[in-house]
Amino acid sequence: MRLSGFTGTMRALRGNVMKRLIVGASALSLLGLSVPSGSLWAQGEDQICLMCHGDLALLQGTGRADQLLVTPEQLGSSVHGTAGVGCTLCHQNVPLPHAAADVPPVNCAFCHSTQGQQHARSLHGQAAARGDSLAPSCSDCHGGHNILSSRNPASPTSTMNIPVLCGECHREGSPVSRTHDIAQDHILQNYSMSIHGDGLYRAGLTVTAVCTSCHTSHNILPHTDPRSSISRERVAATCTQCHARIEEVHVQVIEGRLWEEEPHKIPACVDCHQPHQQRRVFYSAGAANEDCLSCHGDPLLEGFSTVAGDTVSLFVDEEAYSSSLHAGTACAQCHTDVNPGLARSCETSTEAVDCSICHAEPVGQYQTGVHGMLAAQG
Description:
By secondary structure, this protein is mainly α. It has a domain at 2-103.
């Protein structure tokens, strides 16, 4: 019954379409104009499309009126309408009349080739290529016929709306979070409580970082990909887009020569600042304190190693550490030669901690003092 009813509706629609086209053709003839022929692309007139797609009563029987209805107001206020882009530049080679099956998907990359290439190689594009029904398409983020500029406050891609837009998928309880293994959790909640979230929601600073500031809009890659804007190799460059003078600060604090000569010794931003909650020290891709203490918190490691004939304890008393002056300092900030890419991060740690990384002046005074000179002599 449903199929029969739908078929009848489509026949009626096609009949109405043909009647409207005949009326439109007659009007054009009276004006001395030729009647366009062939595909919808060849006709190139939005008004021909709107004769049907702008008529809510005509579309009611399809069950998809909300998707098929297009108003002149929508088109006129959209970025495409203001740029003079007509229906047929996006909807190419569509016959008249047509059913839904006759309309091929819009290929936004036809005009937006760079963004299309970026999306294709991104996490979202790869998911779409695998047939993942939850993978976002262009219209899921930008809209369909009512696409607004990201500078328009009403646009879903405006700075103020970006966290909510991304949070539609990346939030607890969403279909994406329930069916996909996403390393970070409570992303939207954590962001809203972070210093960036405070800047956006409490201070209204649209210059603050939102999802796309770090992950980019279309070229979204996992942090394990060296090309990613949030990979260890590139995350500093991403952060310095906003924190432009942070390198100068680190040069002052971490002894400038290390920054240029041994950049691998400088902790990446995310070693100290959690990606979505910039108030705590934790990052799964870095050497987090929890990772270190999972081994070094074992009392059996006390007196475990011998260096130059002296017994050295590898045990870290977590309670003593938490009450020390360094309680707010991550292990990796002192032990800068650890490699979080290895199963045992400290496997590469073979050098003594260089306290001058943070305490350059006191260490310099010590080295030129009696005690320092005696220590240098052995």
